[in-house]
Design goal:
Shape: flat
CATH architecture of the largest domain: Orthogonal Bundle
Radius of gyration: 28 Å
Number of helices: 9
Number of domains: 3
CATH class of the largest domain: Mainly Alpha
Length: 173
């Protein structure tokens, strides 16, 4: 066991191992043994915290560097390949019922997956999660404002002559 690994808990090491295998924080946390309350938002939050831990990140970076040294493929090659997939520039071979080999564009599903991987690799993932409770409060507030505006509008529509007279007097003053 290396010195840097001694500073990490078994749980953190399990997370790192699983993250290095899958590249997905939440999946790694579950496989490492996370026992949360069952909510996806809690899982995602805890996974993000684990990933942001300086010791955990340092070990992930160390392992990535070792893999890059040993690898025959560079991160630039991977990114370029994923970019081509995402842009629909790559094709795949398909055998027809008649036995002919044809080139077909990769599926949209594969393009979307390539986009997700690219955003994760390049750090383009949305950092800010939507606060649902805050969104509900804003929606309720807007709803109340709309209701009040509707009442005001209807009240003005009922007595248009008085309204016009009152506005005319305000303009004259």
């Amino acid at each position: 066991m290396k010195y840097s690994e001694k500073k990490l808990t078994l749980y953190q090491l399990a997370f790192i191992d699983e993250f290095m295998a899958s590249g997905r924080k939440s999946e790694a946390l579950l496989r490492a043994g996370y026992k949360g309350n069952g909510k996806k938002s809690s899982l995602d939050s805890q996974a993000a915290k684990m990933y942001a831990n300086p010791k955990v990140r340092a070990e992930i970076d160390r392992r990535r560097a070792l893999l890059a040294e040993k690898s025959l493929i560079s991160s630039e090659q991977i990114i370029n390949r994923l970019a081509k997939m995402f842009n629909g520039e790559l094709t795949t071979q398909y055998v027809t019922k008649q036995g002919d080999l044809v080139e077909v564009p990769i599926s949209y599903k594969n393009q979307i997956e390539a986009g997700k991987l690219l955003s994760a690799i390049l750090g383009l993932e949305a950092e800010k999660k939507i606060d649902v409770k805050h969104e509900v409060k804003i929606t309720d507030h807007l709803s109340e404002n709309l209701e009040q505006a509707t009442r005001t509008f209807l009240a003005k529509r009922v007595e248009p002559k008085k309204l016009i007279a009152a506005e005319y007097e305000e303009i004259q003053e």
